[in-house]
Design a protein that fits this description.
Elements (H helix, E strand, L loop, with lengths): L10 E8 L5 H10 L6 E7 L6 H4 L7 E5 L8 H12 L7 E5 L7 H9 L1 H6 E11 L3 H4 L4 H8 L3 E5 L6 H14 L4 E4 L7 H5 L6 H7 L12 E7 L4 E4 L6 E8 L5 H12 L13 E6 L6 E4 L6 E7 L9 E3 L10 E4 L10 E9 L4 H15 L3 E8 L6 E8 L2 E9 L6 E9 L3 H9 L4
Parallel strand pairs: 1-4, 1-5, 2-3, 2-4, 5-6, 6-7
Antiparallel strand pairs: 8-13, 8-15, 9-12, 9-14, 10-11, 10-13, 16-20, 17-18, 17-20, 18-19
């Protein structure tokens, strides 16, 4: 291996994106297993109650980091900045970073991080965004999914993957559509994501001009919260919340020195790095992660560190949850300064995930019959399914991955020592949690 230069060079970062089931993990495993002489750290952002992709990545025991963002439409900048900051301290352990986004994510906020955050920009360079497109199912999502459109629009390289599942005419029509959406990207047709590694890892730089042309506000700060306000608190204050468009709602509280728009802006930027924690993460900063799935009104006690001015930030707009702020006597409090950071932000509350964990061996025949019947009846609404199973009498893990009604399953590596746990995730539209849990548990031997 050639000697390292004494000059500290920026660490190249590749972002892998693409809709659910397009082949991102397959491409990642190809990169990690081929002989290219580069040491790679992996950052994954999963959507779902159970993180399975980590376990599907080969050679992932040491240099893999996971971001698990409950809301598929909110930014991940705080998580990403924190993980990248930790990686800088270990830069002698790797040469490059790959960020694999969730299939339901807009890659814009991830790419933006490398331009708007000064510390990150000084240490890292975005080499390129690689977008995978499922040749069989892309047309089902191109018109209805804004995330799918953004993934294609931001791609420097587009892999038109799973070409074996589409006809030549379908591939040609899809490629014309992709070129209309992103005329500057390089399009490569692939099967099993078998793209030349140099086409993926040596892109040569994210096209910022293209990103700005597509989204003029690309370099404007984006935050993982939608609303902020400054209140004068004396102790005993509460917030009243009702169930809203998301199952969870995070609220952050941190002190400020004055009730001005500038003070709120400074507090907002300071909070980005600590947003994902559910406890005190910085001096006098508190983040509460609230589960609002239970019906009815919830009253949450605010816990300021003494009387004074405090900036309060909410993950979603307060009106989406009919939120009210009240003092110790029950009177409604109004913010002195207020700012909406994502007005008009919407949630597709019909799309969600169901995660299932269960111990015990699985009857293979019963499982195959159940899954086949499930997808035959509901495959159009199940965008993605994947799991790791403990088949009865088998020492190897059984892995399955599916997109709509197409399923691929295989025996993989041996189970590690210790208890064996079955893990499944279904991502789709209007999923019936009880039906899925009962159906799978009937497959246990």
């Amino acid at each position: 291996m050639p000697a390292k230069s004494s000059t500290i060079e920026k660490i190249p970062v590749t972002v892998l994106t693409g809709f659910l089931g397009s082949g991102k993990t397959t491409l990642l495993n190809r990169i990690l297993s081929e002989e290219h002489g580069q040491r790679i750290a992996v950052i994954e952002n999963e959507f779902g109650e159970i993180g399975i992709d980590h376990a599907l990545v080969i050679n992932a025991d040491e240099e893999i980091f996971e971001m698990n963002n409950g809301c598929i439409c909110c930014t991940v900048r705080g998580d990403l900045i924190r993980i990248l900051g930790n990686l800088v301290k270990r830069r002698d352990k790797f040469d490059r970073i790959i960020v694999e986004t969730t299939g339901m994510a807009d890659p814009g906020p991830v790419a933006q991080t490398f331009f708007v955050d000064e510390d990150i920009n000084r240490q890292f360079v975005l080499d390129g965004v690689v977008t995978l497109v499922d040749a069989r199912h892309a047309m089902l999502h191109l018109d209805e999914s804004e995330e799918c459109q953004q993934q294609i629009a931001f791609g420097d390289v587009i892999l038109l993957n799973k070409t074996d599942l589409a006809t030549q005419a379908q591939l040609d029509a899809l490629e014309v559509r992709l070129r209309l959406m992103n005329p500057l990207a390089k399009i490569i047709r692939t099967h099993n994501a078998a793209a030349p590694i140099n086409e993926v890892l040596e892109v040569g730089g994210f096209d910022l001009d293209h990103a700005l042309a597509r989204k003029p506000e690309f370099l404007a700060p984006e935050y993982p919260f939608e609303w902020g306000g400054i209140f004068a608190l004396n102790g005993g204050e509460q917030v009243l919340l009702q169930e809203g468009p998301d199952a969870r709602m995070k609220i952050a509280l941190l002190p400020v020195t004055e009730a001005t728009a500038d003070a709120l802006a400074v507090a907002a930027e300071a909070l980005v790095r600590f947003w994902s924690s559910a406890s005190v993460t910085a001096s006098n900063t508190q983040v509460m992660d609230l589960d609002l799935r239970a019906a009815g009104l919830k009253t949450i006690d605010l816990q300021p560190g003494g009387c004074g001015l405090y900036a309060i930030f909410t993950q979603h707009l307060p009106e989406e949850f009919a939120a009210e702020w009240r003092d110790g006597a029950g009177a409604v409090l109004e913010p002195i300064v207020v700012q909406a950071y994502a007005a008009g932000h919407s949630h597709d509350d019909s799309v969600g995930s169901v995660g299932i964990r269960a111990s015990g061996p699985v009857n293979p025949d019963a499982f195959n019959r159940w899954l086949s019947a499930l997808l035959q009846a509901n495959g159009a609404d199940i965008f993605r399914s994947k799991g790791i199973l403990n088949f009865a009498g088998q020492e190897l893990r059984y892995v399955f991955q599916g997109v709509h009604m197409l399923i691929d399953g295989y025996l993989e590596r041996p189970w590690p020592p210790g208890p064996r746990e079955n893990q499944l995730v279904f991502i789709g539209r209007k999923l019936d949690r009880e039906m899925l849990e009962i159906g799978f548990r009937r497959c246990l031997a």
